[in-house]
Amino acid sequence: MQEKEGYVLAPCCRSSGDLQTYRRMVEIGVKIKGLKLDRPERWKERISEEVQKLLSLKEQLGDARPQKFQLKTPKGTRDYNPRQMAIREGVFKTIINCFKRHGAETIDTPVFELKETLTGKYGEDAKLIYDLADQGGEILSLRYDLTVPFARYLAMNKINTIKRYHIAKVYRRDNPAMTRGRYREFYQCDFDIAGQYDLMIPDAECVKIVAEILSELNVGDFIIKLNTRLLLDGMFAVCGVPEDKFRTICSAVDKLDKTFWEDVRSEMVDEKGLAPEVADRIGEYVRLNGQLELVDQLMQDEQMMKNKMARQGLEEMKLLLTYCQLFGVLDKVSFDLSLARGLDYYTGVIYEAILTTEKVQSDGGDKNEPVGVGSVAGGGRYDGLVGMFDPKGKKVPCVGVSIGIERLFSIMEAKAEAAEGKVRTTETQVYVASGQKNMLEERMKLCNLLWEGGIKTELSYKKNPKLLNQFQYAEEHGIPFLAIIGEQELKDGVVKVRNTSTREEETFPRDKLLEEIRTRVGPS
To answer: Boundaries of each Aminoacyl-transfer RNA synthetases class-II family profile domain copy (predicted)?
Structure first.
């Protein structure tokens, strides 16, 4: 269907009813043109009515034109080119090495779970879960995180103790902010310790792991915020929050890392029905942050110490900060009462790592209040989650951390762009080359010798490539060495090895080549 000068032209009609609809659309098109030619301001409402009629008829008929297919990735997703993948693999390697250094083993779980497995675990974030169409009697959803599937795995396999890491994609129907590393499909890197252990020891190791990873990746200055759910609930009780509003108010406080106190207060009072004076009391507490001195200060607060949950939370925080000091990361942590983490399954310590190199200040707000800084890791203790899946409600205490890998990828990619340096996208160590014709079979034999010796090797796929082109390929791809052969080398039983960066050449006996190459490239 096309429009020309106010007339609607029918390309073809599938039925007599279609033809009548097209004729009616032509009539309306003529009427609209006439009204516009007369006095468009006078007939503004009439024109609008006729346009709505025309749109309704179009919708009823359907567009007869073939639709142009737009090639793009779905909203909130992206492709990764070889350069980006090389950066990602480097980040993964750093993280996995850290996990393994702390004694973790790995597992995997399905990308989708039974919907009932995920239901009731995420509080207000449950609306972000992707539900799948019924494909055979099971109602399924894409996994929202790796923690709930891990708890299901423990309960299903009756596992009481494990230290595991899991790196996989998760899915959220969130509003993506791709420049800030927030997607609908993204990787999570989780480290969790399950088992009955003494207080705060595993929790402190999780904090240590976050500090190690962020330091090794050199992403900039960061701080790891710490708090406990016990202290939060105790604080809410002291401030006068009704117990049935604890979780919903916790979700509001959780937004303080993304917005300002005034907005959070407004949500508490206007949307969630909290008394203004109660919200103000909460505001006095959530502005506090520090370390052991803040714990001591709050222990002098009579109202806090009268509340059992608050008192226990402060004792746990004091122990955690002491262990962080022993692990050498006290300078990287901050006891922060604004940290809430809105997920329902947290029961104890919670933490979140924040980059402090970027700040936004509010108009008229606290100029020292950081807003919009990048959260790059988070986690906490969830002692009751496994019991939710166990028929007898048997609990397996767990604590863990999730590294915000997509945010880290965005930072590392930006750093690589700023450095304007080459990022190697392959790990090839040797390029087999020849400057003479009819040497393909000999190049292939030499390539095979190096492959079987464990050397990462390439060769040109042309029968008679030019030697200069082979040199340029090695330089452009950062391949450190070339193994060059020709008729004379074959006759003498030797191979010429060229250093790509220095352009120095050495000749070695063929039977010593593997040994010499390994000496120069190091372990694979």
So the answer is: 53-412
Asked if residue 79 belongs to a known ligand binding site, the reply is no
Instruction: Please check if 153 is assigned to a binding site.
Output: no
Q: Which of 266, 263, 454, 470 is nearest to 369 (CA)?
A: 263
Q: Is 345 annotated as a binding residue?
A: yes
Neighbouring CB atoms inside 10 A of 516's CB total: 15
Q: Is 254 annotated for ligand binding?
A: no
Q: What is the dihedral of CA 239, 244, 249, 250, to 10 degrees?
A: 100
Residue ranges of domains in the chain, CATH in brackets: 8-70 (no CATH), 82-419 (3.30.930.10), 430-521 (3.40.50.800)
Unique residue bearing structure tokens 């919009």: 372
pLDDT tens across 12-52, in order?
A: 455 566 677 778 888 888 888 777 777 667 777 788 888 88
| Residue percentage of the chain with pLDDT more than 90 | 58
Residue 382 assigned as binding residue: no
Q: How many other CB atoms are there within 10 angstroms of residue 80's CB atom?
A: 12
291 labeled binding residue:
no
pLDDT band at 362 (very low <50, low <70, confident <90, very high): very low
The pTM score is 0.78
